[in-house]
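Limitations
The structure tokens in this dataset are predictions for the assembled complex, not deposited experimental models. Users should treat interface geometry with appropriate caution, especially where small molecules or nucleic acid strands are included. An illustrative entry is reproduced here so readers can see what is and is not provided.
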Amino acid sequence: MVQMKRTAPRARRASAAPPETALKPGRKSRAPRRPSAADPATVREIFTRFRAANPHPKGDLDFINPFTLLIAVVLSAQTTDAGVNKVTRDLFPIADTPHKMLALGEADLRERFKPLGFFNTKAKNVVALCEQLIAKHGGQVPRRREELEALPGVGRKTANVVLNVAFGQPTIAVDTHVFRVSNRIPLAIGATPLEVEIGLEKIIPEEFKRHAHHWLILHGRYTCKARRPECERCLIPDLCRSPEKRV
Ligand code: SF4
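Predicted assembly:
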């Protein structure tokens, strides 16, 4: 991604207005009524259960320092974490700093990134990213959101992951899983990742914020799946009010 910012996933728009025909007197809307966002006590209970089941959640991307985390997240755009890990398994041991990564050269990186898709853009971005880290940040990954988002290939979600995982800040990165799960349960309802992020920031108690996005990603990836949520093994079926619930 030249910044590969993700467009909003095509999740159901809970707040979308019904079609005009549905508003005419005498005509009933067939659209299912969407539940409103969970109340504070429910939100607390949901995260209490996630924490009890997995007190120290981790993402699936492999990395060895803030720089390799940043590269891994940039490479993960439009592909799977498992695919990125396959590529970085041989890469990070020999290129764990911007200088070493640049020394490999763009052509070498392009070959390595081929399995990931968008490999031309990703190779260019990684090279430009390393050059900027060296030129503007002494080869270090910056700790400020504005500086992170100014780097090639780095958007808000990537910055949130790095701030959270590498630097321990309670940011909430909204990827496709967090977006879907949050709208589905629903926790925070929004038509864009930013709306969901702002909504989650407001409703998640401070004590859960540090790990909130990991719990939601893992819940969405392994249980509350996009096409067929596995509600029979869900931790929160009694708290979920999704019309897609299957228990
Ligand atoms: S009950 Fe089903 S739809 Fe609701 S959160 Fe759990 S897995 Fe998702």
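Some entries come with short summary sentences. For this one: The first helix runs from residue 40 to 53.
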